[in-house]
Amino acid sequence: MTSIVVHYQEIALKGKNRPWFIARLVRNLRQAVSDLDVVSVRALMGRIELMLGPAAAPEVIGERIRRTFGIANFSYAGRTTLDVDEIAAAILTDLGDRTCESFRVSVKRAD
After folding, report:
1. Distance, CA of 30 to CA of 52 (rounded, Å)
2. Rounded to an integer, what distance in angstroms lies between the CA atom of residue 81 and that of residue 90?
3. What is the average pLDDT score of the chain?
4. What stretches of 1-111 adopt beta strand conformation (E)?
5. Residue 12: is its pLDDT beyond 60?
6. CB-based contact 22:43 (threshold 8 Å)
7. Distance between CA 39 and CA 25 in Å, rounded?
8. Under a CB-based contact definition with an 8 Å cutoff, are residues 77 and 105 in contact?
C-alpha cells in the first residue's frame, strides 16, 4: 500500500469557486497528516491522492482523513506495473493472511 485515494463530497458543485475549495481541502488534509509520514498530498481530477512514506501507519492516517470535513470516502491503494502476474502478486501481498469469498477489479482504461 503506497497511497490513499480520497473522494470528496459536494465540492464539484461549486462552479467557478471549485479550484479554491479543492485547494482548501488539500491544505486541510496536509495539515491533518502533517506529523505523519505522508510524502505528498496532491489534487487529481475528481479526487486527492496522499502518497505514503515507508514508515506510514495507514490506519492512523485513515482516521485523520475520516475526521476531515468534506471527505466522502477513501481507499487504500498501491502501484504496480501493468503486468497481470505482478498485479496478482501485489494483491496477494496486500491481502496477507486475510481470506475473502470474492473480489472485484474495475478498470476504465484499455491498457
Report:
1. 12
2. 10
3. 88
4. 3-8, 38-44, 47-52, 71-77
5. no
6. yes
7. 17
8. no
Domains belonging to the chain, first-starting first, are: 3-80 (3.30.70.1510)
Instruction: Express each pLDDT in 25-78 by its tens digit.
Output: 999 999 999 999 999 999 998 899 999 999 999 999 999 999 999 899 999 998
pLDDT (0 to 100) of residue 19: 85
* DSSP assigned state of 15: G
- Side-by-side strand order, sheet with 38-44: 38-44, 47-52, 3-8, 71-77
Q: Quick count: other Cβ atoms within 10 Å of Cβ 95?
A: 11
Which amino acid, one-letter code, is at 83?
Answer: D
Cell 485513515 belongs to: 62
How many Å separate Cα 18 from the centre of its chain?
20
Contacts (Cβ under 8 Å, ≥6 apart) of 60: 36
Distance CA(21)–CA(91), nearest Å, equals: 34
Beta-bridge mates of residue 43: 48
Q: Is 82 helix (H, G, I), strand (E, B) or coil?
A: coil
